[in-house]
Amino acid sequence: MSGWEIFHIWLIAFFTLALFSFLYKDNPIYKIAEHIFAGLTAGYQVGLIWDTVILQKLWDPMIAGQWWLFVPGVLGILMFARFWSKYSWMSRVSLACVMGVTGGVFLTTQLHGLVLPQMQSTMIARTETVAGDVDAFDYNLSEFQVVEGARPDTVLFQLTDTVSEITPIPETQEHGGLNIESGSAAASKKWVDRTGDNRLLLSAIFRDSTELGIGEDYEVSFSIREHENANRKTTVLDKASVVSDGVVLTGLGQGRYKIEYAFDPGVSQALGDYDLQFEVNRKSTMFLLSIIVVVGVLSTLIYFYFSHEHVGILGATARVGIWFIMISFGAHFGYTVMGRVSLLIGRVQFLVEDWIGTFLQIWDFLISLLS
After folding, report:
1. Please, which residues bridge with residue 283 across strands?
2. 201 by DSSP, 3-state: which?
3. Are the C-beta atoms of residues 290 and 232 closer than 8 Å to each other?
4. How far apart are CA 256 and CA 199, in angstroms?
5. Tens-digit pLDDT profile for residues 271-315
6. pLDDT tens digits for range 143-158
7. CA 49 to CA 9: how far, in whole Å?
8. Residue 77 belongs to what H/E stretch?
């Protein structure tokens, strides 16, 4: 470590300890460090604004031909009229433009960034994945083939194997006992005419040793990739819920289930052989969390409803809103304190590791001079 680096560390340590000295009492050393910090910050901000705003955003573009920028430049100059009481009224024009533009920008950003997402989170139930399993392409023997039809505008799907035997994954606690046993691609006949009403029926058989709880459901995903192809590009065909997307769930007994989904590959599917992959996830709707969110939002809004006296049911709901507000304030306060404590830890770590570490180097330097 060079002498300049040691001086730099000692300078940082001095200002750190000088600011910490306020914990004892207000003193001249603290005031010196405070004034230096405020002065450096103000000077840095002035230089930053001069370079990034006045020069880059105003002066240079005007020189380049964007002459209309003199309008915001004049409005900016009018802000300094507040230093003279006779002309201070002129600064109101600039302030009105700033307030109007800022209000319009913040209205849209806050609406799309906070209000609408909060409304969506309140109205849509939250879900989480409880367990899931997927059969690898290497274990899936089911495949179908896209071939040319009798007419140029007809594409046919030829099933080369109607049953897929997949190596079962052992039931583990991590997966909650959910594992896929087999999958298949089937149709009403061997040749499926794209121009007709036939669809390729994809199905998967899986086992789940844990029964579905309240608010839980299965979600299935089917994927394909080109068979025996060097690139082997994987395409997600579809994701569907057994509740709303036409997926049929059939119980086979002893914790075994079969999922069937009518899939339409479409005329855009390239000719060739394709492997299938099945994925099953067990989803859970977090009813308790959703109810807490709904109650918290409604009771907080009612607390700020001042057009009616808070008595009766309205008053009780408003008191519930106060609890949610206080919990939110407490969480924000705790988060702020945690951030400040992390800064303190960083400063103490610097003093212990970097600053005190220089003492040994200074000692070695003095020994070398004396010797």
Report:
1. 129, 217
2. strand
3. no
4. 25
5. 666 666 777 777 777 777 778 888 998 999 999 988 888 889 999
6. 555 555 544 444 455 5
7. 29
8. helix 70-78
Cα angle 297, 300, 302 (rounded to 5 degrees) comes to: 110
Which H or E run contains 10? helix 3-20
Nearest to 183 by CA among 223, 146, 232, 131: 223
Question: 284 with 128: CB under 8 angstroms?
Answer: yes
Give the model's confidence band at 107: pLDDT under 50 very low, under 70 low, under 90 confident, else very high: confident
Place of tokens 């009612």: 302
What do you get for the CA distance between the two ends of the chain, in Å? 21
Note the pLDDT of residue 139: 46
Give the pLDDT score at 137.
57
* H/E stretch holding 182: strand 178-186
Scan for tokens 């770590």, then name that residue: 349
What are the CA-CA distances from residue 59 to residues 66, 68, 74, 254 (Å)?
9, 11, 12, 78
Q: Phi and psi (nearest 5°) for 30?
A: -65, -40
Residues, the chain, total? 371
What is the Cα–Cα distance from 184 to 289, expressed in whole angstroms? 38
Angle formed at CA 225 by CA 131 and CA 189, multiple of 5 degrees: 95
Q: Determine how many CB atoms are found less than 10 A away from the CB of residue 322.
A: 12
Strands 164-165 and 155-161: unpaired
Q: Which helix (H) or strand (E) holds 131?
A: strand 127-134
CA distance 224 to 276: 5
Characterize the bridge pairing of strands 272-285 and 155-161. Answer: unpaired
Q: How far apart are CA 52 and CA 54, in angstroms?
A: 6
CA distance 145 to 134: 22
Higher pLDDT, 321 or 127: 321
| 22: helix, strand or coil | helix
